[in-house]
Design a protein that fits this description.
The protein is mainly alpha-helical. It has one domain: Alpha/alpha barrel (Glycosyltransferase), CATH 1.50.10. 53% of the residues lie in helices and 4% in strands. It contains 16 helices and 6 strands. The strands form 3 sheets. The protein has a two-stranded antiparallel sheet. A two-stranded antiparallel ribbon has the order 3-4. The protein has a two-stranded antiparallel sheet with strand order 5-6. The longest helix is centred in the middle third of the chain and has 18 residues. The N and C termini lie far apart (48 Å).
Length: 393
């Protein structure tokens, strides 16, 4: 009997954390949102450190993580989440509205993303510098280079190119700016960019979207006839889906193109389930069985968030919630780890993905699966927190 009791004790104490993680039900998602947000703050005591940051910078990844923290604040009422974000903003923006290390001349849509946090910071603190910083970012968008039909280039160094990523970086900021400051022309610009990106990246055969489009067809990755990049990168589609759903928060019900944007949400929601495996989506999303491909945390967390929020907002029928629930369950069982100190880690996050540049990224399947993988990348952890919040509603 003593031997039996010792054996049982060893088993119980060896795996309590795994058992607690795998026993959770979808209605426990608010607990996961708080636990993971608190894990991020424990890992990264200051917001500039999110995404393994090495310096104070207005980085888009830190912006994703801070947007999640602001949602935690609005959901729980816990002021410490707001303070975490505002301390970062306060350290970045001077009294004239200048943003630390921001480079207008780069015409980089990634710089716009962190501007999303400035709305709450301005409203809550009344600091005029945050409003001035928003005007700096709007000033960039007024002069940002465009394709011949008006689509924003992703960056000045990526000439003639529209990327799905850029729609998430810039369009919700534009739309919210238009809604909050009574500038409807920026809501119209948001819709214009959505329509152009859909036109140039959508693949009717699969219902998915190519990572990017090159108007000039000069990039080695661009199809000489269509200008499309050759593969469907999971996270780029996640950015696009989140952008559409977030944009709808600010596109008025009577806007003539609102129904079109909702139809894009519906179309993508119908296309994605066939590629979901055990709740997860893969790095190259349309070929989960292909050797070398792997279930990737950021695309899964992004799509979990987009599905759950779209259902909560009434853009999708309630039956679509199951895809978000399956994503949560897949992440929880296969990619989420509980550490000895009680914090949570999200594994198998693609650290970066892009096209062109030096060394050259050709958009091939081999390129995407060969990019570096790491834990607790903010492009995954931020959407995971936000997705858990939406599933908890």
């Amino acid at each position: 009997m003593n031997t039996l009791f010792r054996t049982l004790a060893l088993l119980l104490f060896a795996v309590p954390q795994a058992v607690s993680l795998h026993a959770a039900a979808p209605d426990d998602t608010p607990t996961y949102a708080r636990r993971f947000a608190d894990s991020e703050r424990a890992r990264f005591p200051e917001a500039w450190q999110l995404d393994h940051g090495k310096r104070l910078f207005f980085g888009y990844s830190q912006g994703v993580g801070c947007c999640a923290m602001l949602r935690m604040w609005r959901t729980t009422g816990d002021r410490t989440y707001f303070d975490y974000v505002e301390q970062w903003a306060d350290s970045l923006v001077d009294e004239a509205g200048n943003i630390h290390l921001y480079d207008l001349a780069a015409y980089n849509l990634d710089f716009i993303n962190s501007g999303k946090i400035l709305f709450d910071c301005y409203r809550e603190t009344g600091k005029e510098k945050y409003r001035k910083a928003m005007e700096v970012l709007i000033g960039q968008l007024k002069r940002h280079p465009r394709t011949c039909d008006g689509g924003y280039w992703h960056k000045l160094v990526y000439q003639h190119q529209m990327w799905l990523d850029g729609l998430y970086m810039a369009s919700p900021f534009m739309a919210q700016y238009g809604a909050e400051f009574d500038k409807p022309e920026w809501i119209d610009e948001t819709v214009r960019q959505i329509k152009l990106c859909h036109k140039h990246t959508h693949d009717p055969a699969t219902g998915l979207y190519h990572h990017a489009w090159d108007e000039s067809r000069t990039q080695r990755w661009a199809d000489p006839e269509t200008g499309h990049s050759p593969n469907f990168w999971g996270r780029s589609i996640g950015w696009w889906f989140m952008a559409l759903v977030d944009d709808l928060d600010f596109i008025p019900a009577d806007h003539p193109d609102r129904a079109f944007v909702v139809s894009l949400v519906q179309g993508l929601a119908d296309a994605l389930p066939k590629y979901q495996r055990d709740g997860l989506w893969y790095q190259v999303i349309d070929c989960p069985e292909r050797e070398g491909n792997y279930p990737e945390a950021s695309v899964t967390a992004q799509l979990m968030y987009a599905y759950a929020k779209a259902v909560n907002k009434g853009h999708l029928a309630a039956r679509y919630r199951r895809y978000a629930e399956r994503a949560f369950d897949g992440l929880r069982k296969r990619l989420l780890v509980e550490n000895p100190d009680g914090t949570l880690t999200l594994t198998r996050c693609c650290a970066v993905g892009g096209l062109g540049g030096n060394p050259y990224r050709d958009g091939s399947f081999e390129y995407y699966i060969g990019e570096r993988i790491r834990d607790n990348d903010a492009k995954a952890t931020g959407p995971f927190i936000m997705g858990c919040i939406e599933l908890g509603k």
